Amino acid sequence: MPTFEDIELELEDKETQITIKTNIDFEVYCDTCGAGICSNAKTVRSRNRGELQVRVSVCDNCIQNKEDELNDVIFELSEKIAQLEEEKQELEKIIKLNNNL
Ligand SMILES: [Zn+2]
C-alpha cells in the first residue's frame, strides 16, 4: 500500500497552532478493470514545489487483457490467411486446367 510519510498537518484555533506529522496510507485501483494496483504505485514529491504526487504504472491486468485480445485477433487472422491460401491454390488448379484445354 502506498504511503505519504511525514505529512505535516497544521491545526489552529484562535489561540493555538499545532503542527502534527502523520503518515497517509491509501489504496490504488485501476479505473478500467478495477484491479488493485498498489504495487504499481509510488509516492513522490515534486522536484521544485515539493507537492505530493502519486506515480502509477500501467495496470498489469489491463496489459494482459489487451495481449489476450491481440492474440485472439492474430489467431483469427492466421486462420483467415490459411483459408485464403487454400482458395488461392484451388484457383491456381482451375487456371492450370483451363490453360491445358
Ligand atoms: Zn486494469
Molecular structure report:
The protein has 101 residues and is α+β, with helices and mostly antiparallel strands. It folds into 2 domains: 3-56, no CATH class; 59-101. It is 41% helix and 29% strand. It contains 1 helix and 4 strands; from the N terminus they run E-E-E-E-H. A two-stranded antiparallel ribbon has the order 1-2. A two-stranded antiparallel sheet has the order 3-4. Strand 1 and strand 2 form a beta hairpin. The chain is rod-shaped. The chain starts with a strand and ends with a helix. The mean pLDDT is 95. Zinc ion (ZN) binds next to helix 1. Zinc ion binds at residues 30, 32-33, 35, 59, 61-62.
The chain-level mean pLDDT equals: 95
Basic shape: rod-shaped
Structural class: alpha+beta
Question: How are helices and strands ordered from N to C?
Answer: EEEEH
What percent of the residues sit in helical stretches (DSSP H or I)? 40-55%
> Unreliable segments (pLDDT under 50, ≥5 consecutive)?
none
Tally the beta strands: 4
Largest sheet: 2 strands, antiparallel
User: How is the quaternary structure best described?
Assistant: single chain
Bound molecules: zinc ion
How much is the radius of gyration in Å? 30 Å
Number of domains: 2
Side-by-side strand order of the widest sheet = 1-2
Give the amount of beta strand, in percent: 25-35%
End-to-end span in angstroms?
Answer: 78 Å
Count of separate DSSP helical elements: 1
Question: What topology does this entry show?
Answer:
Elements: E1 3-12, E2 17-25, E3 41-45, E4 52-56, H1 60-100
Antiparallel strand pairs: 1-2, 3-4
